[in-house]
Amino acid sequence: MAANRKLGHEMSPWLMAREAACLAQLGRLDEARTKAAEVLRRKPGFSVRTEMPHYRYPADAEHLRDGLLKAGLPE
Questions:
Q1: How far apart are CA 9 and CA 51, in angstroms?
Q2: CA 20 to CA 47: how far, in whole Å?
Q3: Residues 70/51, Cβ–Cβ less than 8 Å
Q4: Is the entire prediction scored with pTM above 0.70?
Q5: What is the C-alpha separation between 63 and 66, in angstroms, rounded?
Q6: Cβ distance 4 to 19 under 8 Å?
């Protein structure tokens, strides 16, 4: 999460979504849902299916996808 914050003052919706996923995987669901709500405020059409990048290892992609969904972002 700290690495995301170092990328710039204003985070993109995708970086915020990744942070929400991290928070969700850490069990910090209230924070994750707050961050996910901000993602959807900034990009109302955000969905995991359309925004998910390609990962070399399927397990990495599934871990991120699981976190995004736990955070409350739409499929």
A1: 22
A2: 13
A3: no
A4: yes
A5: 5
A6: yes
Token pair in block for residue 43: 């990009």
pLDDT for the residue numbered 43: 96
Q: Which of 26, 43, 40 shows the shortest CA–CA distance to 72?
A: 40
Helices (H), 1-75: 2-6, 13-25, 29-42, 48-51, 58-70
In the chain, what is the straight-line distance between the N-terminal and C-terminal CA atoms, in Å? 22
The token pair that represents 67 in the structure block: 């976190």
Single-letter code of the amino acid located at 59: A
| pLDDT score for 68 | 98
Contacts of 29 (CB under 8 A, 6+ apart): 23, 70, 71
pLDDT in tens, 4-63: 555 555 789 999 999 999 999 999 999 999 999 999 999 999 999 999 888 999 999 999
